[in-house]
Amino acid sequence: MSPVGPPPRPPDPGSRSGGRVEILNAVVAAGSFCATLMFYAGAVGSSSYYAYFHVSYASLGLSFSELALDSLRLITMPVLMGLALVMLVPELPAFLGSLGLPDRWVFRARRLGHLAAARYPWFVVSGVLLMVLWPFIAPLRWTAPLLVASGLLLGQTRAAQRAGRGPVSGRPGGEGGGRRALTVALAGLFVLWAVALSSGRQGEQEARQVEERLVERTSVVVLSTDPLAFSGSPRPGIEDLGRERHYRYRYTGLRLLVERDKRYYLLPLGWRHRTDPTYVIEDDDSIRIELHPGVQLGLAG
Fold first, then answer.
1. What is the mean pLDDT of residues 30-57?
2. Does the pLDDT of residue 150 top 70, yes or no?
3. Are 228 and 283 within 8 A, CB to CB?
């Protein structure tokens, strides 16, 4: 008879619970980072957008949730798409395998992922070189910190470590673990920088589109008991409705930028960023605000 070995030990419940705790901590950390990133992107984009109209976004009193939701319009921005694509490459084989695609596709994807992970220093070097060329890459400056962040994160993947090119992670409390945490934190800073550059540029681009298509925005008619002093040029049209009217003066030719806490931020038709002011009208007993549809250029004629 062959000797009977010791019976296998049942799995330690503590190890399973510990694994679940680690997964939960990772999910919470990722969720917190995503929420922070959304808030940051919304704040930078809103700041750039309203600054174009000479308005401080802080004066609008936007809440955390409003800024985070405002960042949803930035989800399609190239920096997040590029970062997601770069981080997907090393895990592409497993993803394609789960879809039931042919083995040759999975094999080619695995080779591509290993190649990208093994060449992660080139991402960092490319990003640094773009920083040297900073004055000449104004429209694409966000790519420089994005490349550096992508290289740092690729170096932490299992594919890079198996290739012998990535930093050794080590134990969580050891030197390798501290180095890994420092690398990830540094990559996070570069991601924030890339998000700031991209969302700020996108906010300004949206503001320029508003300026070019100002006539399409909500039309505002201001009725006032007393004359209002509108400076600059062009000015809104004014009509005196007569002494017998409570709201004697009627102002037209205005478009709504935003309304916050009964304060209406208005732009006159023909407004130009470099020369014209933005009007702030506070709705009170002496003011009545009427909102009308703007002109839809696509439906005109």
1. 84
2. yes
3. no
Q: CA torsion sign, 78 to 84 to 89 to 93?
A: negative
Among the listed residues 265, 269, 291, 296, the one whose alpha carbon sits nearest the alpha carbon of residue 279: 265
At 298, list the tokens.
Answer: 């696509």
Report the C-alpha gap between 145 and 123 in whole angstroms: 10
pLDDT of residue 300: 46
- Integer Cα distance of 220 and 238 in angstroms: 13
Q: pLDDT digits over 244-298, tens only?
A: 999 999 999 999 999 998 899 999 999 999 999 999 999 888 999 999 998 866 5
Q: Which residue has the tokens 């992670």?
A: 169
Cα gap 277→266, rounded to integer Å: 9
pLDDT in tens, 114-141: 677 777 788 889 999 999 988 888 888 8
Q: Distance between CA 209 and CA 205 in Å, rounded?
A: 6
Neighbours of 250 (CB within 10 A): 18
Report the mean per-residue pLDDT for the chain: 78
pLDDT tens digits, 175-186: 566 777 888 888
What pLDDT does 143 receive? Answer: 86
List Cβ neighbours of 39 (8 Å cut-off, separation of 6 or more): 64, 67, 68, 71
Q: Which helix (H) or strand (E) element contains residue 283?
A: none
Determine the distance from the C-alpha atom of residue 28 to the mean position of all C-alpha atoms in its chain, rounded to a whole number. Answer: 20
Contact of 74 with 39, CB cutoff 8 Å: no
pTM: 0.71
Beta bridge partners of 281: 264
CA distance linking residue 55 with residue 283, whole number of Å: 18
Q: What is the DSSP letter of 89?
A: S
